[in-house]
Amino acid sequence: MTEEIARLRQPSMADVARAAGVSAQTVSRALRGSPNVNPETRRRVLAAVEQVGYRFNSAARALSSGRSHTIGLVLLASGGYYSRSAVTAGVEAAAGAAGYAVSIATIAALDTGLMEQSLSKLADQGVDGFVIAVPLISVTRKMEDITRDIPTVTLDGSRTAGARVLGIDQQEAGRVATQHLLDLGHRQVWHVSGPDEWIEARRRRQGWQECLTAAGIEAPPILEGDWSPDSGHRQGQIIAMIPEVTAVFVASDEMAFGVIRALHERGRSVPDDVSIVSVDDIALAAYSSPPLTTVRQDFYRYGAAAVDLLLHGDEADVDATVVTASLTVRASTAPPRSS
Fold first, then answer.
1. Mean per-residue pLDDT for 272-292?
2. Mean of the pLDDT values across residues 264-281?
3. Of 161, 235, 242, 159, which Cα lies nearest the Cα of 193?
4. 149 pLDDT tier (thresholds 50, 70, 90)
């Protein structure tokens, strides 16, 4: 079971029921404030909630009462355009189906001050829950306070104590991508990383490094991009001038497109000369030249599943495949010529 799946299965209402010695229905009634629960039973239920650390559904209960029937979505303006659009579409579709509107706040940069302002603005609007798709590494006390009071799901981004985290294990994504290239027979794997201030970039890089270390390989210098195809193209020009490079793990599909273009311009074939694997599996990945081998992230389903978690807590029906780092193998990877 992956780390991300384990996070999704935090203490449940059933755990509270067992600790209190009552049924799950009684727990539900006690937490809703039903008058049909006697004071002593309610006391035992609340004590059990504290004992097992059952937190999310107490927040979800506030969501079910509804203040505005609006969910707040926080996004970053920069980064992957396709991922941002797909997350937004997923959130809006699931929220609309449940009778909720979506209020969107977009921050211009990875800045805790901007994040605080966006959360405060949405909280002042009376949103009933947050979906945060911003990959901040640091979290402030104010952010903690706001998300403690309002149900929150983060999409592989800012991790506050009261929030649920939804997404694939990014470290595992780095390992899966790198191991694929090693399994094909490549003796070294280079890496074009995302920006260091992004938590996803750091974790994918860590997975790459761990995989090489486990294979007894010293990692080569890291080439850092900014998620854009242009930055991938710049780093690809550097890679093209290093004849011994036969395999590259690129941290995103959009950067991989740029790397492939640069290699082609320099007369190096993909995958005959250099194999490329990346992360995201956006729609264009299957139509690049050659089609791209990549670790899948289903951004639309992330957005929809985040709304489901906000509305239903532990009872949410989140498919385990949504949070599993799975590799889609296409034509951009092959064994090295020497093998």
1. 96
2. 97
3. 235
4. confident
Amino acid code (one letter) for 94 = A
Maximum mean pLDDT: which of 4-13, 73-82, 117-126, 157-166: 117-126
Model confidence at 55, in pLDDT bands (50, 70, 90)? low
In this predicted structure, the answer to whether residue 12 has a pLDDT above a threshold of 50 is yes
* H or E element in which residue 114 lies: helix 112-124
Strand order in the sheet with 152-155: 101-107, 70-76, 129-133, 152-155, 164-166
Rounded distance between C-alpha atoms, residue 319 and residue 120, angstroms:
32
- What are the distances in angstroms from CA 106 to CA 19, 78, 89, 305? 42, 10, 15, 20
Say which DSSP state 184 is in: T
* Average pLDDT value for the chain: 87
| Cβ(293)–Cβ(328) below 8 Å | yes
CA–CA distances in Å: residue 236 to residues 74, 92, 180, 231, 248? 32, 37, 20, 8, 10
DSSP secondary structure code for residue 98 in this structure: T
Q: Is the peptide bond before 290 cis (omega within 30 degrees of 0)?
A: yes
Spatial separation of the C-alpha atoms in residues 33 and 12, rounded to whole Å: 18
Given this model, what pLDDT does residue 158 score?
62
DSSP secondary structure letter of residue 189: -
Specify the 3-state DSSP secondary structure of 118: helix
Contact in structure between 256 and 294 (CB atoms under 8 Å): yes
